[in-house]
Amino acid sequence: MTSIEIPIRDKSFVIETGKMARQADGSTVLKYGDTFVLATAVASKTERVGIDFFPLTI
Which positions fall inside the Exoribonuclease phosphorolytic domain (predicted)? Predict the structure, then answer.
């Protein structure tokens, strides 16, 4: 796990990666006070030839 802590005013802003959402290709947790945000990204291992748009899957 990699973690960076930055003091901002009276709280700390923390960026963590490698701890949560290990099935995703990439994930980061951002913490500031009582607020937590989890951002994840997943990419296909194979290229889709002939596609002229970026498909969004939720």
Answer: 12-56
